[in-house]
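My main concern about presentation is that the manuscript never shows what a single data entry looks like. In essence, backbone conformation is discretised, so a fold becomes a row of integers matching the chain in length. An entry of this sort, consisting of the sequence and the corresponding backbone structure tokens, reads as follows:
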Amino acid sequence: MSADIDADIERRHVCVTQEVDVAGRRVTLRKPHSADALIDEEDFSRDERLPYWADLWPAARVLADELAREPGRGRTCLELGCGLGLTSIAALLAGYETTASDYYEDALAFTRANAFHSVGRAPATRLVDWRDLPDDLGTFDRVVAADVLYERAYGPLVASVLDRALSADGIATVADPGRIAAEVFVRACEGLGLALTGMPVREIRDGTAIHRIRLLELRHAGSR
């Protein structure tokens, strides 16, 4: 199965690799050599879709490092916007029964391939449009997302997904580097009865730049 996934990716993409540390473990990710080369004018004109999934963002590295240290065995985890799969790989390393979701089929393919090479198994994958969630998505003990609030319209959308997909006693974490929709997102969550229970900040170096990533932690109001 891993060979089939690899062959499919290599047939459609020129790939490069990037190594990253996750909770003290070295993970090698395969990714397209250029995100810009994946821009599709038809996709963009239809819904301003851009292939942000094809880059590894600092927020994903921070969230993955945090998630990999959690006790996940016996619990479920959903990643929103899985991209190259680093955070879903971290969830698998922690023992979570993991579902990776994205708006791009290619992101799901790279996530499956990268997970197979990193941990020997792949998460379940779902193609998900936040504007039209599948009826059978279910609920999860953990819902996580990294750097998904870069458009103002995404604040209410991501909040509504959390409200729908987070179990009654579940915990959500959205890793955010200060995107435009972050405050809108928090207000939308509060309006839906999702309480912001923590907002620790982690710093990460990316070359010469230092990024400050907020981990927005949310629960259904009234849950423990």
Notes: Residues 2-220 form a domain with the Rossmann fold fold (CATH 3.40.50.150).
